[in-house]
Design brief:
By secondary structure, the protein is mainly α. It is built from eight helices and no strands. It has one domain. Helix 4 packs antiparallel against helix 5, helix 6 packs parallel to helix 7 and helix 7 packs across helix 8. The N and C termini lie far apart (45 Å).
């Protein structure tokens, strides 16, 4: 029992199911908007709405199972070894962290471990919905500052500098 409610244990098959659902590429189509696609559409037609539909189920996971799932998604993302564009699974990771706030530190650790020299600008933003804890936000801000001052990756540096300028502007608005 956790926080006054029963937390269902999940089997390895459930971890695999969630992991697969969270790491399929999210594709957007001009013909069929993502919100219209059915839950059982092709894995290569997975929409963000389908990934977000898992959020209520992910909230029910006990923390150890959520951590295992996070690790499974992280491993799939890293195994792709391509970070110039947002890898499949990142949107699912954000949904998982939103559903399980205890994973915010793990998300920042994941981002910090990515090879700076091979990351595209996608890595700089899009984490606001998942990072609510002030410690995680501070660590992320520090990471963006690091990206803005590194010299190995000019595109990442420019995106991080742009993000920092936008953050400063938000402080004075």
């Amino acid at each position: 029992m956790m926080a006054g409610r029963l937390v269902p244990a999940i089997a390895s098959a459930d971890i695999a199911r969630f992991s697969s659902a969270l790491t399929f590429p999210v594709r957007y189509s001009f013909v069929c908007p993502p919100i219209v696609r059915s839950r059982d559409s092709s894995p290569y037609q997975t929409s963000m709405a389908n990934v977000q539909a898992l959020e209520s189920e992910l909230k029910q996971l006990a923390q150890p199972e959520a951590a295992k799932l996070f690790e499974a998604v992280r491993a799939k993302i890293v195994s792709g070894d391509s970070f110039d564009t947002q890898p499949a699974g990142v949107d699912g990771m954000v949904v998982l962290v939103r559903a399980q706030p205890s994973l915010q530190g793990s998300l920042v650790d994941f981002l910090q471990a990515l090879p700076t020299s091979r990351c595209g600008p996608w890595v700089v933003s899009g984490w606001q919905g998942a990072l609510k804890d002030t410690d995680a936000q501070a660590r992320m801000a520090q990471l963006v500052v690091g990206w803005a001052t590194q010299s190995d990756n000019k595109m990442l540096r420019a995106a991080a500098e742009h993000r920092l300028v936008g953050a400063e502007r938000d402080l004075f608005d």
